[in-house]
């Protein structure tokens, strides 16, 4: 049953930056656009989020409450064999509860649970509109001349375009004061800081995805579509401008090596593939930090 996933409780989806960045990232806004080739549909999304960290009584124990909202729009230029009216706008509202503490001098345990409502909301909200994301990650940090960070874990998220358990493995290393790199899944990148670390450039390859429930099922050639999923592999360049330690603006541009938009029965059984070509990718936004 599809509603069974509501009770699939796992814990955290944290970034390769480690828990320090998660705690200090208090909020922000970003805009993402995938520009369709020819008459392929365009995908546009705006997200806003806020995090409230709380230091607990135990040393190095933190609790983080977060709230995130996103609005996604798909512009269809070509006519399909079925109506795409209900596929033009989707809403996602997510609450996150994170917890982190030091296991010892080298290892940090991080955990988060994130119930999410994600749907086109063309009808009343139902149990199928809810998914619980999360996971667990262990982070090992080395300091000194050879600063590095290894993150290992398991998450449940839409990183690959459908809700699924996904391994999280990344290795971050500082080559010198101006150059760092990250190897792993779901992102690999090289980052260069300049202008006395007031700016940075990066090149990256990352996996990204989007998933939402359809309030009203769509019947296509006798098959029932119940959800929509977007799966992308993106290669690109990014720029960050830092304003002290408390804020930065960022812009990223790239090209999709994989760009798949599908309608599914349940979570992942394909009903219809929009057969997209690879496309240009843009993302820009602003973050403020503690």
Coarse structural class:
mainly beta
Number of helices: 1
The biggest sheet, with number of strands, parallel, antiparallel or mixed sense and barrel status, is: 14 strands, antiparallel, barrel
Strand content: over 45%
Poorly predicted residue ranges: 1-24
Q: What's the CATH class, please?
A: Mainly Beta
SSE string:
HEEEEEEEEEEEEEEE
3D architecture notes:
- There is one protein chain.
- The protein has 290 residues and is mostly beta strands.
- The chain has a single domain (2-289), classed as monomeric porin ompg (Porin).
- It is built from one helix and 15 strands.
- It starts with 18 loop residues before the first helix and ends with a strand.
- Residues 1-24 have low confidence and may be disordered.
Features:
mainly beta; Porin; disordered N terminus; 2% helix; globular; 14-stranded antiparallel beta barrel; 15 strands; 290 residues
Summarize the structure.
This protein has 290 residues and is an all-beta fold. It has one helix spanning 19-24, and strands spanning 25-35, 42-55, 62-75, 89-102, 107-119, 130-142, 148-157, 164-176, 179-185, 187-194, 199-220, 223-243, 247-265, 269-273, 280-289.
